Amino acid sequence: MPLVPHSKAAAIAFFQSHIAAWSADPAAIGLSAQQVIDITTATGASQSSLLAMQEAYNTARSATATNDTDIEAMRAVGASLISTIRAYAKTTGDPSVYTKADIPAPKAPTPAGAPDAPTNVSGTINNRGAIELSWEGTLAFHTFFEVYRMFAGQTEWTLLASIGKKAFEDTTIPPSTTSAVQYFVQAKRTDLRSEPSDPVTIRMGVVGINTNAPAANNTESSGGDNLNIAA
């Protein structure tokens, strides 16, 4: 472990505490009077510069805090001015306002494009005999979903509903239905449509029996079918 401490303040204190003993009789400890004067001068200079450094540090901290406050105030005032300029340009309908103010005009929103096709469409028969459908998809940018149905023996799909959620209950199944029913879901955003989802097939039960038990009716995916949509 070094005799002289590493920290600045402790090193200064070390030499300050030894100068008195060293200056009492320098020759007795192998030093010259000039050497004692040198360490005394160096210690005093170090003490003065350390105090100056600490004062500068404290001043800098205070100045930094003041500057942070000033910058925050400047940003708030500037943001208010920019908002006022943009509002004025919008109200007057004059795009040259942005040029005169040397700020960029707002960019036109990028069209969202067609939504992705719904996925993981599934269905079950509930205890009321209705078919509950659910699927995955996005509702972003005002997307909604169209649900289509086709009974066995039919050749065209019928639009059942346009809804803004990812579930649908089909309560219009005739009680006498015993054949399979197919559904697919298509996402729509303004006039843009996604690809249709893979169709899902719901088995309605045995001929002559109005099946209400979901557990007895399986959902089957029949992806790859050609979808002819009825108007």
Automatic annotation (TrEMBL):
Family matches, as InterPro entries: FN3_dom (IPR003961), FN3_sf (IPR036116), Ig-like_fold (IPR013783)
Bias kind Polar residues: ranges: 212-225
SUPFAM superfamilies found in the cross-reference section: Fibronectin type III (SSF49265)
Region annotation Disordered: where it falls in the sequence: 100-121, 212-231
Name under which the protein is recorded: Fibronectin type-III domain-containing protein
The species this protein was found in: hydrothermal vent metagenome
